[in-house]
Amino acid sequence: MSEYDLVVIGGGPGGYVAAIRAAQLGMKVACVEKRAALGGTCLNIGCIPSKALLQSSEKYAEATHELAGHGVKVGDVKLDLKTMMARKDKVVTELTGGIAFLFKKNKVEHIAGTGTIESATSVKVTPEKGKAKTLQTKRILISTGSDSAPLPGVEIDEKQIVTSTGALSLAKVPKHLVVVGAGYIGLEMASVWGRLGAQITCVEFLDRITPGMDGEVAKNFQRILKKQGMAFRLKTKVTGAKKTKTSVTLTVEPAAGGDAEEIKCDAVLVAIGRRPYTEGLGLEALGVETDNRGFIRIDDEFMTSVPGIYAIGDCVPGPMLAHKAEDEGVVCVEMMAGQSGHIDYDAIPGIVYTWPEVASVGKTEEALKEAGVEYRVGKFPFTANSRARANDTTDGFVKILADTKTDAVLGAHIIGPDAGGLIHELVTVIEFGGSAEDVARICHGHPTLNEAVKEAALAVDGRPIHI
What we know:
The structure is a single chain. About 35% of the residues lie in helices and about 25% in strands. It has three domains: about 1-150 and about 275-345, 3-Layer(bba) Sandwich (FAD/NAD(P)-binding domain); about 160-270, FAD/NAD(P)-binding domain (3-Layer(bba) Sandwich), CATH 3.50.50.60; about 345-460, 2-Layer Sandwich (Enolase-like, domain 1). It has helices spanning about 15-25, 40-45, 45-65, 80-105, 165, 185-195, 215-225, 285, 320-335, 365-370, 385-390, 420-430, 435-440, 450-460, and strands at about 1-10, 30-35, 110, 115-120, 120-125, 135-140, 145-150, 160, 175-180, 200-205, 230-235, 235-245, 250-255, 260-265, 265-270, 275, 310, 350, 355-360, 375-380, 395-405, 410-415. The model has no long low-confidence stretch (mean pLDDT about 95). It is α/β, with parallel strands linked by helices and about 475 residues long. Strands 1, 2, 3, 4, 5, 6 and 17 form a seven-stranded mixed β-sheet that branches. A five-stranded parallel β-sheet has the order 8-15-9-10-11.
């Protein structure tokens, strides 16, 4: 028997950050993780390896299509996919190893195995080899994350028909890759393989890409991706898949009903969303309540319906984002320690790491209209930004939505170069209840991409300088 103040189940971004913070607060902490390496989906088969491949494929595309325009002439550019994949794996190994170091530094005990909650004060851990053991604890924190959602009629083999996991490790560049689902994950992986030479077809059930994104931004995003060579089949559903040794044939039909047709390809990526992963935890037997989609119900302090058992991250409602899970983990354990905690879910950014990047925070125009909120819009295109011109990265714009009466920034949406970095100025403004005028009055360095943010803020009041 081992006794702890807190046992965290799941070593992903939410779990490992919560474990470290709890240890900093003086708790005796164990983190149970069934993978051999810490970091969860994000570090092992998600955020990090996908960003490594996005960066590598971007460099390949730059060398093959863009450097000549800058006066840099290169010879015959060749793709070494094996080296590219090895670099991706090295990045993952280094970062997961870094978490193990942080656990040792903060005296967090890493226990490898599958965790099952036997009671509000005990967790059974079953290792891949060896005997199971029981951990006694004052509190339990569930941070088990999410898994790829299945598509009825399409069997995943992670070789020809893959989830995002398999898409990170394809043995060769497919001639034709069909991506089912035009959300963040699908479009990022489509960008990787499209840059490396694959023909890309995105099949989306809805009448638009990136559901939930500001409509104007999504429309421009799709137009830019089409220019890059992606084809889109919107309002279309996939009803089946047949494989041979070398190809896959998908059966598709209109979402509203109609005649079926076939799409033949080399590989299929199923990216229709993610679902909470709580399998094997024993929640039902304990009486831990979940909603109709399988998300664990929690209160304002992240406690489940069973006192002493808490949950954060992808397995609870809200944005399924690593940074959201991290913040929840920190706030949750700080409240356990008697401190106050707060998360403004309107100040959590969402980022698509394609090129150009797309980033957003706060409300979309559609959400404000539906809520009956009066707002003003300020926009500024990167074509009018001097740094974007110098860099030849002029696609996109900055868009700021501010309350008509108070001028408070209600939402911000950026499509363009380094959108994922630029958005954080506006995240900060929303977190502190700032206004568009506040942003407009701040001196921004010249020449920088950040000036486009200032100009968009000026445009809210109808007074941009450079357009």
